[in-house]
Structure formats: structure tokens, C-alpha cells
Design brief:
heterodimer, A: 560 residues, alpha/beta, Flavocytochrome C3, Chain A, domain 1, Methane Monooxygenase Hydroxylase, Chain G, domain 1, seven-stranded mixed beta sheet, five-stranded mixed beta sheet, 15 helices, globular, B: 361 residues, alpha+beta, Ubiquitin-like (UB roll), Fumarate Reductase Iron-sulfur Protein, Chain B, domain 2, two-stranded antiparallel ribbon, 7 strands, binds flavin-adenine dinucleotide, binds iron/sulfur cluster, binds FE2/S2 (inorganic) cluster, SDH/FRD_Iron-Sulfur (chain B), tricarboxylic acid cycle (chain B)
Chain lengths: 560, 361
């Protein structure tokens, strides 16, 4: 048996930041991750991370708070948003002192770029590889602090014993075998769930594992219907083409060559907010004015020189994955599932309602993003709330000298039997078949636009797929590096996450932020300014609600 | 239920229409301890014309054999998971479009990376790789522990010094093809050394001297054979060999200011040191000093038979009257010039406490 004071599940920005903080506080910490830490999807973030440093122009945490509240379409909890926006500058300075290589201004200070819906240039960045820089600097600190890492260990189950989380069961991917990892406090930091959509910017590993772990452990998932779509992703593999292309002057055109943003956003045009652009594109394509299921991101008028010097990364991605050189031809793009605003319901210290269980990062919903996340705010969330969860868990672990988390042998044996069942099954479907069907269903029926009838169809399909997934058959019967087994486990998480998403979406009869209903086109504060909670109820989803925390800012119409 | 007239808007037209092509690939299979025979299997899959090597492997895994093992995550060449060999050279599987191979009618061969033990199929054990990264103390060494009040001041040009090294995604493609590592598995290798330079070249780091001393030790920078395979194979343009050259230059630079190259203790380093010293003294390399000064007088004794053999062939210059440049003063002037032109190790970053007052003015 393995035992630690604090165990962090997930090693992206949130997980590593939490582990570093807990270790500094002097407790015994370990990280469990299905990927080597630097392989986490945080590394793919390009644009940057928001903090009101005021390096470019005057700025304040207060103004960052207001922009975020408004951006959230008033579904964000204002106490949580204020915490993040006020602590962000200190967290950024700390990252810089850890060694983060951020882009500098000529005065040697951290440069800050303007980002959508922000009142000041507030986004700290590192060219177009901000996430990469963060993931590596945090990994360096993890090594410096000598944190134990169970690398390529897949968490399959949280163990709740006597109402308290006692740790996690994890499968050793490389060598095979299930391990019980006992912890006084467990922090989930497993990232997002974009993979349930056919078109997504997310990595293969973003499969809702943490949401499903927490849900099955009795923690409600909050606001799961709010999935942000990014307007410019490649058709072939969903890879994100940065907003920078439009920032540099790129146009969006339909099949007739028209700049269709002129009608929904005559002023902002291509630079309107993500949800607005995604919806406009979706209309063009769905009404038959698209090109091969896409609209066209046209950079040709920018010229070879500008494209090569300012957008080399995007050009490379377009050449590699779309077979198109943007110097000569426009890039076909379409909206793709990008960021899950909802997640495991936690308070401003990352604590869930189950004692001993915390969550931070994209898996969690504090909630700072509400119905719509602003670009650059989620990396900040991983750092600030990762740190806070690490600190809180460590403090608890130190105080609770007489708490001894114990994982019962029987729990391990049950889980071993479940995995054995998948390994030895000779009938049923292969996981990928169901996964592909789910991804298409979600993209078609719970995408950028939703209606009651589409969502009903979607929920029915998800239920059918969940039923079919009870009998899975995998080819790989071995225990060594069995990624077939992993994909079976991930499929269950995806299906459970999808069920919560679609149940919440069906119930929410309004349009707010990323949740856009064609049959209820207005925001309805009277009925719906509240958080959706989806609970586990004998395998099914039970709906519930809780109020939004409002401190200073009363809801206004969100217009830019 | 409300009926609406724009129900059709929920679903994208043509979302799944793709052009397909057929790709064949020979893949090395290896079952690990359970089945230690290495064998090749050829698969033919139907994939979109935009498919990468990784997409093809996914198609093999889904449609042919779910037991095929390989690593993947980001599928956009940033996470460093999917390093493997394509026709004998390391690539990121997610960064190789397959269309050109299909057009050329070529069946590619896919195998795991080199210089690392194979776990199963295309999966290698990365532990030896990470051990070496860890060995270079890969974290910024600054003296401050208290929470900072502001950032360090670093000029963009100063930061530019490590811009290439900061691109490394730790994929191992360079290590896979490293010539020197084949001969000396303990050689720190291109990725770890590029990481080391990322700190040596960082003006905020306070540990330059100690880092350089370590890197000049056994299995360090002087073990590199300069084959440039790492530069060639790196998918991110890090150019690790250039980083190694910069570490060598930093070593000389630190050493120059001491008068002697005290940092250079390893055999490879001493070898390089003879080049500096003897060109300084006489404008030429003194070959006869090379061996004793590199491997020491005792070791040199053992090389005497070889030296005599060389002498018989007329390949040994007169040890008592080494070549000397005609105008050695000119050589010394050149050295001086070089020394003046070589900046001392770059100006340090401004400490935050020195700039707090300046901030916000
Ligand atoms: C392409 C792209 C660009 C983006 N750009 C920006 C940007 O510019 N600015 C911004 O603020 N945000 C951006 N975002 C969003 C932001 O990057 C993510 O929300 C954030 O990085 C998530 O971090 P995380 O630590 O929560 O999760 P991740 O980094 O996804 O890490 C999840 C970790 O959990 C582990 N894990 C998962 N499941 C299991 C399991 N079952 N067992 C064990 N371990 C598990 C994984 O191995 C991994 O280590 C972007 C997102 C994408 C996809
Ligand atoms: S140049 Fe040096 S480090 Fe690079 S591959 Fe060759 S021997 Fe290895
Ligand atoms: S130097 Fe290049 S090839 Fe080597 S690990 Fe880094 S990114 Fe990969
Ligand atoms: S899958 Fe991430 S680099 Fe290829």
C-alpha cells in the first residue's frame, strides 16, 4: 500500500502547482498522472495568461474582476472571481521567479497583450507557446522540490470510506497492476473533456476522467452544459488556429467570398467574442454557405512576409494538418469544442462537499468562468486555484494528525474484478465504435446551437450508448502498456460527462454565454441565474440548482 | 415543446465529408517480457488525405489490432509523446503528413526510437532520458525564497539568448539518433545539454560556474562528436548541438577571465584546453602535448608504441621545436581583441528589489 498526506491526481498546470504548494508547506505529497507531466494538455495553450499587472497601460484587479463577471454572462461567482483577479499578479511574479520565460517589453518588464473582452492589455504571454513555457517551468519546480510522481498511472476510482475520501485506486500503465494510493487529502486536477465532441481542440487525454471520478464519489458537477466552442479549428483534427490570425487582420469568408461577420458584428467584425463568431460560422455552414463543412480563414492579403514573421506557428499547423499554405490559400476552419466551463463543484479553496476531496483547474468549477470564459483566464485559474487547493489540503493534513485514511482491501478487489472483466471480455463492442458515435452525436445535437428536440435526441442516444458500453471488448489482453484498456475506461468517463452535460442543457431554457438555445433565445435571469448541479443517483443523473454568488455587480446586458 | 423554424441550424452540413486515401505501413511489434521477439507487420488502412502518421496508427489500432501500443496526446506537436522512427529516423508521428508517401508509392517502416529500451511496440522507456535531464539540475537557481513583489527585469535581447532552447518539448527525437550516446550510454546527450544551456544562458540564474563545472565533467559536453544528427532530427528547431557549442564557449569565457581553464577537468575538456593553451603560446596546436595533457603522463606512457609507429611514418612533429607562428605577438594581439570583444558573462538581470521603486513610475 502506498500512503501520502496529499495526493494530486493530474499533472497539468493545476496539478503541478497544487503539488508544489503542498510540498512547500512541508507535507508528504505525491502526484498521480496518466501522462508524464510535461505531456499534459496545458502545454498546448498558446495565447497567454491574464493578470492585472498594469505593465502596458493602467489596470487593476478590480477591472479584471468586472470584465470577468461580465464575460461570464453573470453566472460566475463574484467572490471566486475577485479572489483570482486579486491574487493573479502575485502568482505571475512567482511564476516568473520560478523561471518562466515570458515575452518582455523593451523596459525588461513582462509584456502584456490585449485579449478579447478585456478592458486593458492584461495578458502575459510567451510568443505563441505560453502553455508550453508554464508546463515546463512547473515541471522544473516539481523536480526541484523532489515531489514523488506516479507517472503513467491511471486513476480509475476514488475511494470514499465513512463519508471521507481515502485516496485513489490507480492502474500502472507501464507495468500493469492496480495500486491503492491512500491520502488524507486528494486533489483532482485532471483537466477537460473536449474529446466527447467530434471537433475539438483538446488532446486525446481530455476525457472527463476527473469529472466522472468525483461524480461517482458523490460530488455534484456544476454548470456542465457550458462548453465553449473556439471559432477557428481545423477540420482534419480540430487543432486550434490562434485568434492572433484575426488579430493580425485575417478575414473570415463564406463560400461566396463574403465577410459574413459584417451582419452579426459590424464593428468588431472578425474580432467579436468567441461565442458570437462561432455562432455566425455555424449559421453559414449549416445554411449551406460553407466550403466542405467549413468557413474560410483568409490570410492571403496579409502577404508572405507578415505571415512568416507574425504567424509562423499557425502557418506550420495549416500546412501539416490541412495541407494548405495560408500564404496562397485560405484555411478551412470551423468551431470546435474547446473549454469546459463547468466541472466538479468546489468552493474558493477548491474543496468539495466530500471531506478529503479537492479539485482545481479545468476539471473544477469554482466558478470563475460562469457561462463563458475569457481567453487567458483559465491558465490563471489553474495557477491560482491550484496553489490554493495545495495550500488548503496541506494545512488540513497537518492539523489532522489523528486522521488515517484507509483503503479497504475489498475496494481494491472489486475494482480489480471490474478491470479483469474488461480485459477478459470476448463479446461486446470495441470502445472506439461507441466513442465515435458519441462524438458525432454531441457535435450534431449539443453543439453551438441547441434545441429541445435535438437535446432530447442527444440524451436518448447517450443513454443508449451508456447501456451498450456496459459490454465492451478490447483486443489487448496483456497488462503491459495496454492503451486499449485505458480507452475503455476513458469511454465510461466521457459518457457520464456527456450525460450530465446534456441533462443540464435540456433543462436550461434560456440562452446564456456558450449555451445557445434556438427555442429560448434570451437570457432569463429571473428563472435561470443559478448554477446547475448534476448529482450521481444510482448511475443516473439527478438535477439540482444552487444560487450564484453576487457581491458587487448586478447583472447587465452583455454587449460589447 | 416549442416548434421553431430554424431547427436545421443545430447540425453542420458536410461536417464528416472527407476524401480518403489508402496507406500501407510496416510496423515493428514487440511484446515486451511476455513476447520478446521483434517482428514487423504490414497494415493497410483507409484514412483522410490529411492524415498524419499518428492518424494512421490510430486507424490500425481501431480497425486492425487494438493491442498496438504507442504514446500520444496533443496530436499537434507540442506534448512530445509520439517520438518514433520513420524509415530509420526519429520523428513526431503527429507531425508527419502521409500524403507524400502515398503519392510516391512508398511503404514506410515504423519502429521505436533508438538509444532507449523498448517497453512494447513503439513505446520506449523514457526513464534514462529523464534521469539525464534531472542530472543537469533543470531549475532556475535564484537566491530569493520570499514571495516576489515584482518581476526581474530582463531585456528582450538577453532573453533572446535562450529562445531556441526554450522550445524543447522533451520528445527524445535527438537522443534517439545521437551518435555519441550509442557509444557511451551515459553521455548526457543533446536534450539534457540543451536544457542545461537554457539555464546557463539565463541571466536570472546564479549558478553558472557550478553548472559549467559539472557539464565539463565525464560524459559531458566534450563527449559530443558533432555529428549534428540532433539538429537534423529535432522537430522544434532547438538545435541542441548549437546549445552544446554555446556551453563550450561559455566555459572558455568563464575560464578566460580566470587565466586558466579551471573548469575543464574531464578528458574531453582537457583535450579542448590544449587547443586553447597551445594556440595562445605559439599560434599553432602542439600535437605532442595533446596526448599527455589530455590523458595525463601515465596514460601517455601507454601510448608510446603508437607514437613511435606514427613517428616512423613521419607523422610526429619535433617535440623539442614545436611549430611557432612567425609573428606570435600578432597571435597574442588577436587573443586580446577576442577577449575584449567577448562580453563577460552577460549582465545579470536587475534584481526585483532594485527596481521596485522604479516600477509604476
Ligand atoms: C489548444 C488550447 C489552447 C488554449 N489556450 C489557452 C490560453 O491561451 N489561455 C488560457 O488561459 N487557457 C487556454 N486554454 C485552456 C487551458 O489551457 C486549459 O484549461 C488548462 O491548461 C487546463 O489545465 P489543467 O491543469 O486543469 O489540465 P491539463 O493540463 O489538461 O492536465 C490534466 C492532467 O490530468 C491527468 N489525468 C487526466 N485523467 C487522469 C486519470 N484518469 N488518471 C490520472 N491522471 C489523469 C493528465 O495526465 C494531465 O496530467 C487552451 C486550451 C487548449 C485546448
Ligand atoms: S551532435 Fe553531439 S549531441 Fe548531437 S547527436 Fe551528434 S553526438 Fe549527439
Ligand atoms: S531538443 Fe528537440 S528533439 Fe531533442 S528533446 Fe528537445 S524538442 Fe525533442
Ligand atoms: S502527440 Fe503530442 S507531440 Fe505528437
Amino acid at each position: 500500500m502506498i500512503r501520502h498526506d496529499v495526493v494530486v491526481v493530474g499533472a497539468g498546470c493545476a496539478g503541478m502547482r497544487a503539488a508544489i504548494e503542498a510540498k512547500r508547506a512541508g507535507v508528504d505529497v505525491a502526484v498521480v498522472s496518466k501522462l508524464h507531466p510535461t505531456r499534459s494538455h496545458s502545454g498546448a495553450a498558446e495565447g497567454g495568461i491574464n493578470a492585472a499587472l498594469g505593465n502596458a497601460t493602467e489596470d487593476s484587479p478590480e477591472s479584471h474582476t468586472f470584465d470577468t463577471v461580465k464575460g461570464s454572462d453573470y453566472l460566475g461567482d463574484q467572490d471566486a472571481i475577485a479572489v483570482m483577479c486579486h491574487e493573479a499578479p502575485g502568482d505571475i511574479y512567482e511564476l516568473e521567479h520560478m523561471g518562466a520565460i515570458f515575452t518582455r517589453g523593451t523596459d525588461g518588464r513582462l509584456a502584456q497583450r490585449p485579449f478579447g473582452a478585456a478592458g486593458a492589455p492584461r495578458t502575459v504571454y510567451s510568443a505563441d507557446i505560453t502553455g508550453h513555457v508554464l508546463i515546463h517551468v512547473l515541471y522544473e519546480q516539481l523536480l526541484k522540490h523532489d515531489v514523488t510522481v506516479y507517472e503513467e498511472f491511471f486513476a480509475t476510482q476514488l475511494v470514499v470510506d465513512g463519508g471521507r475520501c481515502a485516496g485513489v485506486l490507480a492502474w500502472d500503465i507501464v507495468r500493469g497492476g492496480l495500486h491503492a494510493i491512500e491520502a488524507k487529502h486528494t486533489i483532482l486536477a485532471t483537466g477537460g473533456m473536449g474529446r466527447m465532441y467530434y471537433g475539438t481542440t483538446n488532446a486525446y487525454a481530455c476525457t472527463a476522467d476527473g469529472m466522472s471520478l468525483a461524480w461517482r464519489a458523490g460530488v455534484p458537477l456544476k454548470d456542465m452544459e457550458f462548453m465553449q466552442f473556439h471559432p477557428t479549428t481545423l477540420k482534419s483534427n480540430g487543432v486550434l488556429i490562434t485568434e492572433g490570425c484575426r488579430g493580425e487582420g485575417g478575414y473570415l469568408r463564406n463560400a461566396d467570398g463574403e465577410r459574413f461577420m459584417a451582419s452579426p458584428a459590424p464593428n468588431a467584425m472578425e474580432l467579436a467574442s468567441r461565442d458570437v463568431v462561432s455562432r455566425a460560422e455555424w449559421v453559414e455552414i449549416a445554411e449551406g454557405r460553407g466550403v466542405d463543412g467549413c468557413v474560410l480563414l483568409d490570410l492571403t492579403h496579409l502577404g508572405a512576409k507578415k505571415i512568416k514573421s507574425r504567424l509562423p506557428g499557425s502557418r506550420e499547423l495549416a500546412i501539416d494538418y490541412a495541407g494548405v499554405d495560408p500564404i496562397d490559400e485560405p484555411i478551412p476552419v470551423r468551431p470546435g469544442a474547446h473549454y469546459q466551463m463547468g466541472g466538479v463543484d468546489v468552493d474558493i479553496w477548491g474543496e468539495t462537499i466530500v471531506p478529503g476531496l479537492f479539485a482545481a483547474g479545468e476539471v473544477a468549477c469554482v466558478s470563475v468562468h460562469g457561462a463563458n470564459r475569457l481567453g487567458g483566464n483559465s491558465l490563471m485559474e489553474t495557477i491560482t486555484f491550484g496553489r490554493r487547493a495545495g495550500q488548503a489540503a496541506a494545512e488540513r493534513a497537518r492539523e489532522e494528525v489523528d486522521v488515517h485514511a484507509r483503503i479497504d482491501r475489498a475496494a481494491v478487489r472489486d475494482e480489480e474484478r471490474r478491470l479483469e472483466g474488461i480485459l477478459t471480455s470476448t463479446e461486446g463492442e470495441r470502445p472506439w465504435e461507441i466513442r465515435d458515435e458519441l462524438a458525432r452525436t454531441m457535435y450534431d445535437k449539443a453543439g453551438v446551437f441547441r434545441t429541445e428536440s435535438a437535446l432530447l435526441e442527444c440524451r436518448e442516444k447517450v443513454a443508449e450508448l451508456r447501456e451498450r458500453a456496459r459490454r465492451l471488448r478490447i483486443d489487448d489482453k496483456g497488462t503491459r502498456f495496454n492503451t486499449d484498456l485505458m480507452s475503455a475506461l476513458e469511454l465510461h468517463s466521457l459518457l457520464e460527462g456527456a450525460d450530465c452535460l446534456v441533462t443540464g442543457a435540456l433543462a436550461r431554457q434560456e440562452s446564456r454565454g456558450a449555451h445557445s438555445r434556438l427555442d429560448y433565445t434570451e437570457r432569463d435571469d429571473e428563472r435561470w441565474m443559478k448554477h446547475t448541479l448534476t448529482w450521481y443517483d444510482r448511475g443516473e443523473v439527478r438535477l439540482d440548482y444552487k444560487p450564484v454568488t453576487v457581491t458587487k455587480y448586478q447583472p447587465l446586458v452583455r454587449s460589447y | 415543446m416549442a416548434t421553431i423554424d430554424n431547427e436545421h441550424l443545430t447540425t453542420l452540413k458536410g461536417a464528416y465529408d472527407v476524401q480518403l486515401m489508402e496507406v500501407s505501413l510496416r510496423v515493428q511489434r514487440f511484446g515486451g517480457e511476455e513476447d520478446s521477439r521483434r517482428r514487423y507487420e504490414t497494415y493497410t488502412v483507409e484514412v483522410p488525405t490529411t492524415a498524419t502518421l499518428l492518424d494512421c496508427l490510430d486507424a490500425v489500432k481501431d480497425k486492425h489490432d487494438g493491442s498496438l501500443a504507442y504514446r500520444k496526446s496533443c496530436r499537434m506537436a507540442v506534448c512530445g509523446s509520439c517520438g518514433m522512427r520513420l524509415d530509420g529516423g526519429a520523428v513526431l508521428a503527429c507531425k508527419v503528413p502521409m500524403r507524400p508517401y502515398v503519392d510516391a508509392g512508398h511503404v514506410v517502416t515504423v519502429a521505436p526510437m533508438g538509444n532507449l529500451p523498448v517497453v512494447k511496440d513503439l513505446v520506449v522507456d523514457m526513464q534514462p532520458f529523464w534521469h539525464k535531464v534531472r542530472a543537469v539540475k533543470p531549475w532556475l537557481d535564484t537566491s530569493d525564497e520570499a514571495p516576489p513583489q515584482t518581476e526581474w527585469r530582463v531585456a528582450p535581447e538577453q532573453q533572446e539568448a535562450i529562445s531556441k532552447e526554450s522550445l524543447c518539448i522533451m520528445c527524445g527525437c535527438c537522443v534517439s539518433e545521437c551518435n555519441s550516446m550509442e557509444a557511451d550510454p551515459d553521455f548526457l546527450g543533446p536534450a539534457a545539454l540543451a536544457k542545461a544551456y537554457r539555464f546557463v544562458g539565463d541571466v536570472r540564474d546564479l549558478d553558472t560556474r557550478d553548472r559549467l563545472r559539472d557539464l565539463n565533467g565525464a560524459h559531458g559536453i566534450w563527449d559530443c562528436t558533432r555529428c549534428y544528427f540532433c539538429n537534423q532530427r529535432c522537430p522544434k528547431g532547438v538545435d541542441p548541438r548549437d546549445a552544446i557549442a554555446k556551453l563550450g564557449a561559455e566555459t572558455f569565457r568563464e575560464g578566460l577571465h580566470d587565466g586558466i581553464q579551471t573548469l575543464m577537468t574531464d578528458e574531453g575538456a582537457r583535450h579542448a584546453k590544449v587547443f586553447i593553451e597551445s594556440t595562445y603560446k605559439g599560434g599553432y596546436l602542439r600535437e605532442t602535448e595533446l596526448v599527455p595533457k589530455t590523458i595525463g603522463p601515465l596514460g601517455a606512457l601507454k601510448e608510446i608504441p603508437f607514437a613511435l609507429q606514427l613517428a616512423r611514418a613521419g607523422k610526429v612533429p619535433n617535440p623539442l621545436m614545436p611549430h611557432k607562428a612567425k609573428d606570435n605577438a600578432e597571435v597574442k594581439r588577436l587573443w586580446k581583441l577576442l577577449e575584449q570583444q567577448t562580453p563577460r558573462h552577460q549582465e545579470r538581470a536587475l534584481r526585483p528589489e532594485d527596481v521596485t521603486t522604479a516600477k509604476g513610475v
